[in-house]
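Minutes, project check-in
Item: structure for the 324-residue chain
Input as provided by the requester:
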Amino acid sequence: MAATLYIVIPCYNEEAVLPITAPMFLEKLRSLAALGKISGESRVLFVNDGSRDRTWEIIRELAASDEHYIGISQSRNRGHQNAVLAGLMEARDKCDITISIDCDGQDDIDAMDEMVDAYLDGCEVVYGVRASRRTDSFFKRFTAQSFYKFLAAMGAEVVYNHADYRLISARVLREFANFREVNLFLRGLVPLVGFKSTTVSYSRAERLAGESHYPLKKMIALAVDGITSLSVKPLRLITGFGFAVALLSFIGVLWALIAALCGKTVAGWASMTCIVCFVSGVQLICLGIIGEYIGKIYMETKQRPRYIISERTWEEADDRPGRV
């Protein structure tokens, strides 16, 4: 029996691009079903992440036009990672495999064929990896590559040049549901689950319409979340740096005592000011990093829900007159 596929698509203020990409996702679903690779019960699942435009209205219209379109809406905007998680958790008991992909049409949907083939060959997780970044500007390419290298250097286990375009089986999702982190970084959490995995390379195109929702500010915030959620290496670096500064300080004290005993001391504020400023700066940086971890602990202990679904398109259909 063919596997049931749910394509999970997070959407935030996507009214410009959704009418363009939605038919593309549906066509891919039908072509895979026609080849016998997936079941006809497969669906395109849109996740509205508290959009302020007509995104949810468009999703409802799509769901009314074709049964293969379904959608859920979060009660408020919770961010891209939480939206993806909401879709995956909603789909895990309804399908055999999921493929998460952004709504903007930049990720090559034809790579889904290779992903499904890899699943049929026994892989439970298939990562979509960019073959190159030649279409990116120098700044975008530099910051993105630095992002992945910095994460790896800080001890976060990530797949290089992989974002959130991936196939995950329902079996993996059931195990992934046991990960209860509130501070989500799916690119680092999914590899921790394990199971047989592989990668599929693809070329990324320009956004078909609308504006990017991942500027440099959000990339930096995502990197901080990834590092502090998955690794304690920064704390260990602080410890090592603290020992180094303490050692230098101890040597400085010995030098000052020897100089005083030899009567070679001179009054001077410049050196003292530099030392005080340096040590104060180091302390503030270290306190900031430690504070970031404490903040994560604070949020985790609250155990607040990671997403709240306020509406489902199929519930609306069930409420129509004449439906039982």
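Outcome recorded: The CA atoms of residues 267 and 314 lie 80 Å apart.
No further action items on this chain.
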